[in-house]
Amino acid sequence: MIQIEKLKKSFRTEEVETLALNNVNLKVETGEFVAIMGPSGCGKSTLLNIIGMLDNPNEGYYHFDGQEVGGLKENQRTKIRKGNLGFVFQSFNLIDELTVFENVELPLIYLNVKKSEREQKVRQVLERMKIAHREKHFPQQLSGGQQQRVAIARAVVTNPKLILADEPTGNLDSKNGIEVMNLLTELNQEGTTIVMVTHSDRDSHYAHRVINLFDGQIVTESQNRAIGVQL
Amino acid sequence: MFKNYVKIAFRNLWRHRGFSLINICGLAIGLTCGFLILLYVGFELSYDRFHSKSNSIYRVVADIKTPTDLMEMSRPSCAVPPHLLKEFPEIISAVRVMNITLDVRNDRVKLKEKNAIAADSSFFNMFDFKLVQGDRSSILKEPFSIVVSQTTAKKYFGNENPIGKTLKIKNEDIDDRSFTVTGLMQDMPKNSHIHADMIISMTTYTQGVLTDLDDYWGTYDPSAYILVHSNTDPKYLESKFPEFLEKNIGESMREDKAYVSLFLEPLKEVYLHSPRGGTISGDMNSIYVFSIIAIFILLIACINFINLTTARSVERAKEVGVRKVIGAQKQQLALQFIGESIIIALLASIVSIVFIVLLLPTFNAISGKIISSSIFVNPAHLGILFFTAFAIGTLAGTYPAFVLSSFKPVHVLKGSFSTGKRGVVLRKGLVITQFTIAIALIIGTIIIYNQMHFMRNQELGFNKDQILVLETNISPAQKELKYNLDNLKGVLSTSLVSSVPGAYNNTAYSLMKNKDGEEQVANLDAFFIDYNFISQFGLDIVAGRSFSRDFATDSTEAMVVNEKTVELLGYSSPQEILGAHFSQWGKNGEVIGVVKDFHFRSLQQNIRPLTMTIAPDRTDLLAVTISAKNIEETLSAIQQKWEVVLPDDPFNFYFLDEAFDLQYRTQERFGNLFLCFAVLAILISCLGLLGLVAYSTLQRKREIGIRKVLGASVTKVVTLLSKEFITLVGIAFIIAAPLAWFIMKYWLEDFAYRIEIQWWMFAIAGISAVLIALVTVSFHAIKASVVNPVKSLRTE
C-alpha cells in the first residue's frame, strides 16, 4: 500500500537547516499494523505527516496505492486523503463547536454523502465505539478516553484504507489507553492498515512491526511475534 | 454542508459572546452612521426631483454689470417672465414666485404668515405640488385668490372645508383685503426649494394692487421659472437672451451703465448648485464632507471586523487544521469563513435597524429636517442596508478567510502555530488608519466648535442685547405704537427701521460721487431708519455726525454710510466723503456722516458697503430696547399696548441676539452632526482596540507569566502592554494632524471672519485620543497583569 524510497525532508529557519528525514525507505503492506518509535525530534511525526499527505517530501518517492503522491499540490492531496485516510491525534483535535455526532459526520459531509446515509453510518460507528449515548454532547463535556473514541469514530466513519495515529494514547490514562489500542487492533483485524507513532513500548506491542527512527533515519526494524497482546 | 457552516457560525458567535458583541456592535454602529448619512445625502440630492417636468424647468437668473460691480441676482426683473413667454415659442409657460409676508386673520385667529408666496396662475401646471381640492389651471387666476396647505387650513378653519371661505390679508402692498380660498393643497414636500404654506394669485398684484408689474423692468424681485419644450437646448435659448434684452431695455441699460444678462439654471440644480441663493439652499460641500465621513466610518468598522477576525485566527486554527485533515478544500474553508462574516454583517444590519429606529428622531432634530419619518417607509432603504451589510461581510471577510484557509494543518495541529509577522503588521496598519480618521475628526470638531464660539462672541460693533424687534406694518398706528412704547416703564429706547442686523436688508441701486468726482453706480446695502437708530444700536460715528432733528434737510437729503462705502468710492479717509453727492431710490442729497463698520450680516460674510437714510415710509420694524429687569412684565405691557393700537395685527416679535445667532444654525447643525460622527468614529475605533488588546494579551499570557516570575511589577507589565498600542495612536496623530490642518483650513476659508488654527487644538485632540486609547488598553492590560503567573504558565 505504501512504498517510500529515499525520502528526504528538511526544515529551514532563518539560519539553520534541520534535516528531519534522511534517506528513509519504508514499505507498508495492506492490512499491516506498523508502529514508528524513536526519541523526540527524530522525525516520527514528520514521517507520519508525509504518509498522511499533510506535507510533501523534499526528495524521494512516495507511492500510495500505486500512485505517486509525493509531489502533489495541496488540493490534489486533499482529494486523495478524503475517504482513504483517517487520522487519530494525541490531542484528539475535535471541533469544539460541533457535537459528537456532528464531529463524526463531518468527513462524510466533505465526501458529499447523502444525509440519510450519513446518519446511518454515524450511528453505526458511534454504537461500535460505545459512545452513541453521548452523541448530542460537545467535546468538552467528555472525558479524554471518550474524546479519543469520538476521534477514532471520526477517523473510521468513511471506511478508510489507512489509519494514521499520532500518539493516540499520549493524553490518556492507562485504562483508557488500553481501550483505545484494543479498538485500533480490532479495526486492523478487520482489514484496515494502521500506521502509528508512539513513545510507549506497551502500545508498540500491538503492532506487527516496529520501526525505530533516530536522527531522521530508520535504524532498526523488528517484527512482533505476539500480535494484539492484552497487557 | 451549508447548514453545518451556519451551525458552526452561530455556535462560535455564542461561545465568544464578548467578542461577537464587540464585532457586531462596531459594525452596527458603522452601518447606522453610514445609513443615516446616506438618508441625509439622499434627501439633499432629491430636492425638486419629484416634479414630473423637472427636466424641462429652469430658473431664470440675472447678472447686472456696472462699471465697478458684478451683481449676481437670483431673480430677473419682474417683467422678464411674461415677456419671455410672449417672445419665445420654446417656452411653454413662465411662472413668477414672490416670497411675501402676510398678516392674515379671520374671526378665529390672526397670524403673521412669513412662509407665503405670490405665484402666477400656471404654477400648479408647471410644478407637481399636490392639490386636495381645486382645479390646477384656474385656482390662481383671479386676483385675491388664495390656496392654503392642509396644515394652514386647519389653523384658520379647523375641520371645516376651507374652499370658498375668506381670509383678511394685509402687507405693505395689500391693504387689508378679503381673499377667497380657491384651493387646498397638501403640505409641500420638505425636499422642495419652493416652500410655502399659502399661495396668493400673482394677479392680485398685476391686476389688483400694483397694476404695471408685468412691464416693470426695474425691480428684481419674484423668482422666475420657465417650462420649455423637452427638445429645447437651454444654451441655445440663453444665447438669444441678449437680443431680447437689447430690444426691451437696451436704451435704459446704456443710460444707467448697468448691463443685464440672463441665464438659465436647471430646476434640479437650484437647491444644491446655485451660488445665487434667493431661496433655501443646500450645501454641496457638506454633502461631500458627510459622504466622506460615512465612508470613513464604514471603513473603520470594516477595519475592526478584519482586525478582530484575523486576531482571533489562532483560535480557529485548530478547526481549520481538523477540517483540512478530514478532507476540506481550501476554497470550501474560505467560503465557510466568508459566509460567517456575512452572517455577522447581516446580524449587525439587524441591530443597526434597531439603532436607526431609535436614533432617527434625534437625527432629524439635529439635521433640522424631517429626512425620514421611518426607515420602513421605503423598502429600497432596507434593501440598501442589507446589501451594504452583505457587501461589507464579503469584502471584510475575504482577507481573514484567505488567511485562515491557508493554515497548514501540520503546523496548527501540532500547536507550534503562531500568527505570522505579516498579519501583525497589517493589524497595526489598520489600527493606525482607524485612529488617524478618528483623531482627524476630533481635531475637526474642536476647530468647528471654536469657530462657532468665535462667531457667537465676536464684537459685532453694535448692541444686540435686550433689543426686541416688533414686526409691524407701516402705518400711522405704527408711529402711535412707538410713541406709546417710548413712555412705557421698562422700555429704554425705540426706533423704526427697515432692517436690523442679521435680518434681510434691502440693496439699493445708487449713484454716489466718488473720489474722482464721478457719479459711480453701485448696488449698496441699505438701511432705512429714523433719528434714533444710530444711538440705540450704539454705532460709532467716525466722521461727520449722526442724523438730527435739528437739521430740517436730514429727513430728505442726508445719508450716513459705513467705512466700507468710503473705501469703495476710493476716499482715503472718512472725512473726505462728507458732503459727497448721492442719489438713491429717488432721493438726492449729501453724505453727512460715517459710522464705524459693524457686522450687519453674519460673520461668514465680509462687511459690505452700507448706506442709511431717514425714510419713515419704508420702516416696518420697531426695535425696542428694554431693561434687563422684569422682562416678562415689560413684554406683556408692550403686548397690551399693541392690542390697543393695532387690534387687527398679529403680535409678532423676536429678540435680536437670538435672531442674529440663528444665522449660524446651519453651521451649528453641521458642527453637531460632525461631533456625533466623530464620537461614533472614536467609539468604534475603541471597540476595535478593546477586542484587539484582549486577544493580544491572551496571546502574551505566557510571556506575562514569565516576566512576573522574573520580578516584573504590575505597572511594568501594564506599561509593556500599553506601549505598543499607544505608539500606534501616536503615529496616527502624526498623520492626522497635518491632514486635519489642511482640510480645516479649507473649511475655515468659507468664513470671512475666522479663528486661527492653534497648536493647542491639536494637542487636545492628541491627548484625548491617547487617553481614550490608554483607558481602553489598560482595561485588559491590568486584568492580564494581575493574574497569578502560576495560573497563566500552567494553562499554557
Q: How do the helices and strands line up, and which of them pair or pack?
A:
The complex is a heterodimer of chains A (231) and B (796).
Chain A: E1 2-12, E2 17-28, E3 33-37, H1 44-51, E4 59-64, E5 67-68, H2 74-84, E6 85-89, H3 100-110, H4 115-128, H5 144-156, E7 162-166, H6 174-189, E8 193-197, H7 201-204, E9 209-214, E10 217-223
Parallel strand pairs in A: 3-8, 3-9, 6-7, 7-8
Antiparallel strand pairs in A: 1-2, 1-4, 4-5, 9-10
Helix pairs in contact in A: 3-4, 3-5, 4-5, 5-6
Chain B: H1 2-15, H2 17-45, E1 57-65, E2 70-73, H3 80-87, E3 91-105, E4 110-119, H4 123-126, E5 131-133, E6 145-149, H5 150-157, E7 166-170, E8 177-185, E9 198-201, H6 203-209, E10 223-228, H7 234-239, H8 241-256, E11 259-266, H9 267-273, H10 284-311, H11 313-326, H12 330-367, H13 379-405, H14 409-414, H15 421-457, E12 467-471, H16 476-486, E13 491-497, E14 506-513, E15 519-529, H17 533-536, E16 541-544, H18 554-557, E17 558-562, H19 563-568, H20 574-577, E18 581-584, E19 587-595, E20 610-614, E21 621-626, H21 631-645, E22 653-655, H22 656-662, H23 665-699, H24 701-709, H25 714-748, H26 759-785, H27 789-795
Parallel strand pairs in B: 4-9, 6-8, 15-20, 17-19
Antiparallel strand pairs in B: 1-2, 1-10, 1-11, 3-4, 3-7, 3-10, 5-8, 6-9, 7-8, 12-21, 12-22, 13-21, 14-15, 14-18, 16-19, 17-20, 18-19
Helix pairs in contact in B: 1-12, 2-10, 2-12, 2-23, 10-13, 10-15, 10-23, 11-13, 12-13, 15-23, 15-25, 15-26, 16-21, 23-26, 24-27, 25-26
> Given the C-alpha coordinates, what overall shape of chain B results?
elongated
Low-confidence stretches of chain B: none
How many strands, which pairing sense, and closed or not: the largest β-sheet of chain A? 6 strands, mixed
What fraction of the residues of chain B are assigned to beta strands by DSSP? 15-25%
User: Would you report the number of β strands of chain B?
Assistant: 22
Organism (chain A): Aquimarina muelleri
Family (chain A): Belongs to the ABC transporter superfamily. Macrolide exporter (TC 3.A.1.122) family.
Keywords (chain A): ATP-binding, Nucleotide-binding, Transport
InterPro entries (chain A): AAA+_ATPase, ABC_transporter-like_ATP-bd, ABC_transporter-like_CS, ABC_transpr_LolD-like, MacB-like_ATP-bd, P-loop_NTPase
